[in-house]
Amino acid sequence: MNLQNAKILVTGGSAGIGKATAKLLVEAGAKVAITGRNVEKLNRVAEEMGAIPIAFDVSDYGVISAKAAETVEALGGIDVLVNNAGIGDFPSMGDIKIEHFERVFSTNVFGLTLLTQELVKHFIEQKSGHIINLASTAAVRGFARGTVYAASKFALRGMTECWRAELRQHNIRVILVNPSEVTTAFANTERIERPEEAYKLRPLEIAHTIKATLEMDDRGFIPEVTIWATNPNR
Ligand SMILES: NC(=O)c1ccc[n+]([C@@H]2O[C@H](COP(=O)([O-])OP(=O)(O)OC[C@H]3O[C@@H](n4cnc5c(N)ncnc54)[C@H](OP(=O)(O)O)[C@@H]3O)[C@@H](O)[C@H]2O)c1
After folding, report:
1. pLDDT digit string (tens) for 1-17?
2. Which ligand 1 atom is the nearest neighbour of the CA of 138?
3. Read out DSSP for the chain?
C-alpha cells in the first residue's frame, strides 16, 4: 500500500514498539491515531510526533465501539489497524490465579477482538484494509513462567489465522508480527522504559518490520514475520 495519507490506528502508540511504529508511519506521510491509558503521556507523545491521541483502555469493553467511531471520524476513514497494545504477567505455574488470565486476556485478546470487529466493518465496506497483530515469539514457543502471557499470544496467533481465512475474500490482509525481546517498558509496573542494550532489539526494528509489511504492493502480503536479535554472544 501507499503510506502517503494512509489512515492508521496504532493501539498503545504512546510507548515502546507502538510509539516507534506510529512515529515511522507519520514520517512516511500517513495520518496516524494512537491510543493509551495514561492520558498525559498519550497527549505529549502524540503532539511530539504529529499523531492524533485517542485515550482509552482497550480492556474497557463498554467504550470500544464509541472510541472506534471517534477514531474513524478523527482520521477521516481507516485503512490500517495495528493491534499493538498488550500487557504481560508472568506468575509461576503454582501461583497462577484466574485473575492473571482475566487481566492479560482482557487486553491482549478480548478487547483487541472487539476493537478489530468494529473497524473491520469499515474494511469490508470499502473492500480493503490491513490488520497487523503484535504477537510475540511467545506465540510460537512456551517458556517457564510464560503460561498466562504465552496463552494470550498463542490465542492471538490462532485468531489471526482465522481472521485471515475469513477476511481475505474482502481484500483485507491480516498480518502477525512476532518480536523476540525488545527493550521497552513492557511488564514494568512503574512503566519505566528500559535503556537500549547493544545486542537486544529496539522498538525501531519492529517498527521497520511493520512499515515494510505495509509498504508491499497490495497484490501480495506477508502473513507472519518473526524478528530475533542477532545476539552474537549467545
Ligand atoms: N517488549 C517486548 O520484549 C515484546 C516482545 C514481543 C512482543 N511484544 C508485544 O508488543 C506489544 C507492545 O509492547 P511494548 O514492549 O511496546 O510494551 P510497552 O512499552 O509496555 O507499551 C505498551 C503500550 O500499550 C499501551 N497499553 C497497554 N495496555 C493498554 C490497554 N489496556 N489499553 C490501551 N493501551 C494500552 C501503553 O500505554 P499505557 O500504559 O499508557 O496504557 C503503551 O503505549 C505488546 O503487545 C507486547 O505483548 C513485546
Report:
1. 999 999 999 999 999 99
2. 6
3. ---TT-EEEETTTTSHHHHHHHHHHHHTT-EEEEEES-HHHHHHHHHHHT-EEEE--TT-GGGHHHHHHHHHHHHTS-SEEEE---------GGG--HHHHHHHHIIIIIIHHHHHHHHHHHHHHHT-EEEEEE--GGGT---TT-HHHHHHHHHHHHHHHHHHHHHGGGTEEEEEEEE--B-SSTT-TT-PPPPP-TTSB-HHHHHHHHHHHHHS-TT---SEEEE----TT-
